[in-house]
Amino acid sequence: MPINTEACDPLMPTLYYAPVEAKLRRLFIRTLNRVFRMPALWLAAALFAPAPASAWEHWGGDRGGSRFSPLNQITPDNVGNLVRAWEFRTGDLDARAPEVMKRTKFQATPLLVEDSLIFCSPFNEVIALDPGSGVQKWRYDPKISTAQRPANRYNCRGVAYWVDDKAPATAACRARILMGTNDARVIALDARNGTPCADFGANGEIRIETGMPLDWPGEFQITSAPVIVRDTVIVGSAIADNRRVEAPPGTVRAFDARTGRSRWSFDP
User: Does 241 map to a domain?
Assistant: First the structure.
């Protein structure tokens, strides 16, 4: 069927229409009007959609958590030719008892920020590596107790990255790594060297108040990476399942990313 080069409507996408009987043409136009009758809404959706990540600054890749990367050097045609460039071991298998390691899960998604690959171990050790060589740049150990037996095992799924655009470029902790821990702390570190941020809480950390006594120290923990919205860091809760009816609430908590002061909480 020959295609006419006159657009049906100047406000619609560039769709072209072939001559058909008038009745069918009107039906076609009405259908398109229903689909595209709010072009401003489509434009708004496009404007606020998260941009594809060229680095990996968020646990989910970008602010919207799309887990998509536009990088295209690795393709279906060449993926079979990849070889191992380097390997890094946290050292936990050598340094910790087998009975402790049985209670761990390694589920961290690294961030690629500040020219470093930054992730956390199941014991909340934050480690920064050179992306090209795998050489360790810095390491921070919050000294998690291995006697608490966390309900969801020792686990740290990731950390969050935040830059204080109000701080001078050379200021300490202008770029921060934030993490929730298995023993109910939120910790802020300088992304460049792993030093605790002195102006966040007490010496770089705040301790979560669960609101009720715990049956044992591991009944409550934080395992997921924080989410940062503007200058607010938000953390969730991981609670032991099927233990008791009056369990600690799964509260979502928000804190000032600079000072660690509480901003709000929500108990679902």
Answer: yes
